[in-house]
Amino acid sequence: MFPHDNCGSRSEYMEKALLFYSSFLSEKDSSLFLSKALSSTMRGMLTDTENRMATLLFKLTVELAILMHVVASLSDVDDETLRKLRGKCVEDAKRTNGAISFEKILRYQNRRE
Predict the structure, then answer these.
(1) DSSP per-residue string spanning 49-82
(2) Same domain, 61 and 84
(3) What is the pLDDT of residue 33?
(4) Predicted TM-score (pTM) above 0.90
């Protein structure tokens, strides 16, 4: 099993196993030891997930900023219309819990014209 634990040798694997077992025996309640190990593993997984999500959100923000600049350069929307649209979009996002589709927005905009 030592190659599966990224150990360079059987000696290293046995040393890690012995340290693990010694730590396990030193705990009065083995569930506490297992809980610490599980907690540490989960914390690492959550940190990795958080980092991936932050990277994806950053990329999405950049793409959205590009889209907003392109649309703004092609639009002639006054401040009052923009204010009303922002309010509508906030309400739509609250009502649908963020599940807004382009198709529904397109139908809404075409009805207004």
Answers:
(1) HHHHHHHHHHHHHHHHHHHHHHHHHH----HHHH
(2) no
(3) 63
(4) no
